[in-house]
Amino acid sequence: MENRAYALIVGTVTLLLGLALVAVLWWMSTGGGNTVEYIVESPRSISGINRQAVVRFRGIRVGKVSRIELDRSRAGHVLVHIEVQDDTPVTKATRARVGYQGISGLGHIQLEDDGSDPQPLVAEDGKPPRIALQSNVVEQLTESGQDIVAKLRTATDRLNQVLSADNVDRITQSLDNLARSSAHVERTLAQTPALIADLRRFSSAQNAEQLQATLSNLRQLSQQLPQAIESWNRALGRVEAAGGRIDRLGGELQQNLSSETLPRVNDLVEDLQTTSSRLNSLIEELERSPQMLVVGREATPPGPGEGATR
Fold first, then answer.
1. How far apart are CA 55 and CA 181, in angstroms?
2. Other CB atoms closer than 10 Å to residue 130's CB: what's the count?
3. Which residues pair with 112 in a beta bridge?
4. 164-219 tens-digit pLDDT
5. How far apart are alpha carbons 56 and 286 in whole angstroms?
6. Strands 60-70 and 78-85
7. Cβ(133)–Cβ(113) under 8 Å?
8. Per-residue pLDDT tens digits for 47-95
9. Domain range summary for the chain, segments of one domain joined by +
């Protein structure tokens, strides 16, 4: 009986110690106080994070990962549910990153806050507030490396285009043209002393005096030019006035010819036509009877009925 009682006491004490140990572990895992649930949303994979992963705020352990699931409303997004101590200063400026601890490489959620927005992050419509997951250093290096590789590939393609056979031929021709141009430049530089000598002769005192005299004559000519233009304008005005008088005289002459001279000429022509017809008749009578010049014109025989009347 004593052995059984001793065994019962030992078993009871062992069970109580186990329950106490479980309670202590649970209390330590939850942070020893009340917790608040947040959702860390990530548009990329979160390798290294699993349930019960540690959540740290500026390096201090403040909670753990409770659940990981896919976002049903947005394809490709991952939702990580975390439980954080209620006294953790999570604000609207808080962002999450995936960190790795030591050599073991265990992943954890690292919360960071730059203090740009100190307003507390609270739940809306009864749903846990969400925290955006930013890329960590390794992911940033990977993305930067991919960008660098893409840029290097683009630069290589462009370099291949530049160094194509046609472009190489063009570059060779350009170098040949440059060599010929440099030869022309050398010849031009060799002629520079002669050109300078010609400039010196051109800028001699005698040429300078002649140039000054020419400029003086041009200045005088420019001063006389307005007077000449004015005289020319007056002459043009006179010519225009004379043209106007000539136009009026021509109009009057045309009017006189139409109203007076032409009718008289027409009458004169009619008189000449009548006289010409009479003269033609007289010439014909003289041709028939030349004695008419001596004895005169014969009497015209009376017509029918004229004798009885006489």
1. 73
2. 15
3. 95
4. 888 888 888 888 888 888 887 777 778 778 777 777 776 677 777 787 888 888 88
5. 160
6. antiparallel
7. no
8. 778 888 899 998 889 999 999 999 888 888 899 999 999 888 999 889 9
9. 29-134
Give every CB contact of residue 36 below 8 A, 6+ residues apart in sequence.
Answer: 83, 84, 85, 86, 88, 90
Instruction: Return d(Cα 252, Cα 259) in angstroms, integer.
Output: 10
How far the first Cα of the chain sits from its last, in Å, is: 218
Which residue matches tokens 């954890």? Answer: 108
Q: Who's near 92: CB < 8 A, 6+ residues apart? A: 117, 119, 120, 121
Task: Label residues 273-294 b or e (16+ Cβ within 10 Å = b).
Answer: eeeeeeeeeeeeeeeeeeeeee
DSSP state of 297: P
Start-end of H helices in 73-136: none
Task: Give the Å distances, CA to CA, from 74 to 41, 42, 43, 131.
Answer: 11, 11, 9, 16
Nearest one of 159, 131, 135 to 145, comparing CA atoms: 135
CB burial class (10 A; 0-12, 13-18, 19+) of residue 94?
buried
Residue (of 82, 47, 78) closest to 67 by Cα position = 82
Under 8 Å between Cβ of 133 and 80: yes
Assess contact for 43 and 96: CB atoms under 8 A. Answer: no
